[in-house]
Write a structure and sequence with these properties.
The chain is an alpha+beta fold. Helix content is about 35%, strand content about 30%. It contains six helices and nine strands.
Length: about 170
């Protein structure tokens, strides 16, 4: 097992939003900004911003990673660009203040219905329900993610009820 695989997901998180050079098996090198790391497989997702305004996304398999070296810690502009990179169009229609209001309103609603919640992620944007379901901005029923279909359906129904009641 290589050094990268021996690290914990919390240690991998230290690389997020930083520019790195990854050396993989067979001495292949990849360079880019770390968008995310997979806590199960240790895969790394790198983003490179190209001169023509487009971008390239590269996935490096965790088992192939030999070394990861930080090249640049980045700045606020790069971080914001990476955070908003894959944000859905409906999420971009909301200002950060509106998203915060929606999140707080939903949190209050879920707590009122005795649903255990926490916030997670770098900027505490994701609501986690009972450690089995996450709700991403803009916090609608379609923004719920879970492998447990029963919990998914029930929480989506609660959110829909909340949205209906608040309109």
């Amino acid at each position: 097992m290589n050094e990268w695989m021996k690290k914990s997901p919390l240690e991998w998180q230290d690389y997020i939003y930083k520019e790195v050079k990854v050396t993989a098996s067979q001495k292949k090198e990849y360079k880019g900004w770390v968008l995310t790391t997979d806590p199960v497989s240790a895969n790394i997702v790198l983003v490179n911003f190209l001169e023509d305004g487009s971008m390239s996304v590269t996935g490096v398999m965790g088992h192939a990673v030999q070394t990861v070296e930080t090249v640049n810690d980045g700045d606020h502009r790069v971080r914001e660009k990476l955070i908003h990179l894959f944000m859905s169009g409906d999420c971009q229609a909301y200002s950060p203040e509106d998203l915060e209001k929606r999140k707080n309103s939903l949190k209050t609603w879920l707590e009122k219905n005795h649903i255990p919640i926490t916030e997670q992620g770098e900027s505490q944007r994701t609501i986690c329900v009972a450690r089995v379901l996450t709700i991403e901005p803009p916090y609608g029923p379609e923004n719920c993610i879970s492998s447990n279909e029963i919990i998914l359906s029930r929480v989506q129904d609660l959110i829909q009820g909340h949205l209906t009641a608040s309109q």
